[in-house]
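hey can u check if this looks right to u? its 464 residues, i copy pasted from the old doc so theres a chance i mangled smth
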Amino acid sequence: MYVIRVSPNDPTFYMHHAFIDNLWEKFRQNSQTREERENQWATKNCNDNHGFDVQMKPFTIQNRDGLSNQYTDEWYEYQTVRHCSEQDATCDSRFYWCDMKTWRCRSRVVYGGNCTGYEGTQICYNSVCSQGKCVVPPRIRSATKSRIEDGNVSFRERVWAKTVLLDKDGKGIEDDLSRIVITDSDTNQTQIVFHSGETAFPEIPGTVYLSLPKPRAGKMSRVSLEARDQFGRYCQAQCMNETSERYQVCQPFLNISLNSEISSPVSFTHSMSSRTFLNLDLSLHPRQMHPEMPYMVFVCSRKLVTSAMIKQAAEIVRSPVSTENYVFFRVAVYREESSNYQIEVSPYSEIGPIFSSSIEKAASAFDPNIVFVQAPNPELHKEGVRVRVSILSNNNRVQCQIKCTEKDGSMHLCDGDVDLHSDPTLSQEDVFTSDPLSLPVLGWNMKGHPSFWRHKMPFLSFHC
């Protein structure tokens, strides 16, 4: 209803005006004679278009013709509302309930609506009034979700993307009954995905993971989405307009392709473990890291939620300060495949033990030249942490050429020392984490379409 250009198409809009007409006809019948109904007119009008003998645009009749008794004489009449009584405590519709305090039939309140003061009555439709709100008992909630999930089949090959469901205040909806129906336009297969429960960084509150058909090279997958909140109410899609940099009402369709030119600007991945980090730049210092709102979100509200409110929901999400004893950071080690090297990380002060591992064991599964090492957590040490990284073979130091890559991209020879600090301006290596689940994507900027993702080089590189 809040989209003005389409609100007259809403059935509720028609019913609203029909009810107003009913109230007006009641006034005419109770307060005017038959002759007065066709001739009495307001003496003060808003403008000339509201005159008694003026054309009723865009029709060819005059305003006075709308007062004719002929409408209710020959064409229709308004049925009076039947209220309940002590003798018959029922109402004519399941959308009414009998208020036994006044013996009147009243409209029921929808699931999730305000029922303050009516606890213990039947005011709630398909729900019960508890603490001023119409809610569904946990047992019924579980059965409702099971009924919705019945027959739900996952796409055989899929990728993951993110969206967010927001309420009237621009806050994320954290309810496991909020859901999205995804329909593959090619096969007409549907899948329902639910909010997964309580979110944790880097997830934005209200995050829902979209299971989408996996795109093939040279082929595009097209899906339609229909989102509903925990009360079953329709949610309006809003998409980021890259020209105006604002969220606007849009059609809930996504094109998924490996080719960014024909794909919606959506961040997606085939990896279940990596999907958490979509729309996040992991090449930044932890203090500078925050998620980006997905390209398409859903607003579950009859009130206007502005683009600024949508963006704010993501901007306030920040990485929590880690209290773990150690963090992981990356070192690039270029070596012969047959070499059996170890890597060692030695803190300069007595703030933690020496870390040592075989390079083969510590290397990334995706890039064997990237090695993950451990150091004391700089968040726990106000002055920061300085460590020396060495490459060893049979407990002897290997003479390697060591290069350091600065934040501006320049590279120079260095001695293998690296400073980690909670202050980004004092940290030589920005990219570190205490979360082992993020290691496969550490250093990647995963915002936007995957073809635009970029990887940041580690501060230290060893050429052995």
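The longest strand covers residues 158-166.
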